[in-house]
Amino acid sequence: VASSVPAPFPGEVAAAAADSFFPFAALQHLIDTIHTFTGLNWWASIALTAVLIRTAVIPFTVSHQKSGEKIHAMKPEVDAIKHAVDLTDPKSVLVGNYKMTALYRNHGVTPYTPLKGVLIRPSIFMSFFFAINNMVEKVPSLKGGGIFWFTDLTTPDPLYILPVLTSLTFLATVELGNPYIASKMKMLHRGMGVMIVPFTMNFAKV
User: With bands split at pLDDT 50, 70 and 90, how would you rate the model's confidence at 145?
Assistant: First the structure.
């Protein structure tokens, strides 16, 4: 059985990256670099890449959480300005907008600051999904790049363990993330986390 597993060969990932969108190709090259220089199997190389990227965005995550704290602390002032504005009076609206802009500037944030943190988790997840999905089709050595029950990384997990673990990991980052994120946005992320299982259950184990 082992002989039927294609051995890695130089350039196999480069061939996959050649027809990938730049961010996905860059991620594929990073995985390949880690795989080559560490000698780790594919599953470990992919896992290590994920850990390194998560570590790299920690400063951004901390900055986003601090911004969330500022916006949460500003809420009474924001509500007071909104309450004082007469929407039927253009001058009142103009003054309100000026005060609101000054308030956000003084605190070093904008109304759109929370969106940066909202986008980062899905962006990382989707980048890995598209990058690795392309590798599954074009990197033959992934067939023997796994471990335990998932030695062949190009086929779905018949036990659904990996999709469930992925979902739980995503949900954990949502629950342990910025406590000041809007409740509706947190519910959206929770929904995305739950949908990961049916969305990925028929995809390759990797």
Answer: confident
Rounded Cα–Cα distance for residues 161 and 191 (Å): 19
Beta strands in the chain (DSSP E): none
pTM for this model (two decimals):
0.63
> Which residues lie closer than 8 Å to 170 by C-beta, 6 or more apart?
121, 125, 189, 192, 193, 196
d(CA 194, CA 190): 6
13, 32 in Cβ contact below 8 A? yes
pLDDT beyond 70 at 71: yes
Q: What is the pLDDT of residue 132?
A: 84
47-78 in b/e form (b: 16+ CB < 10 A) is eebbeeeeeeeeeebeebeebbeebeebeeee
Rounded Cα distance, 41 and 142, in Å? 9
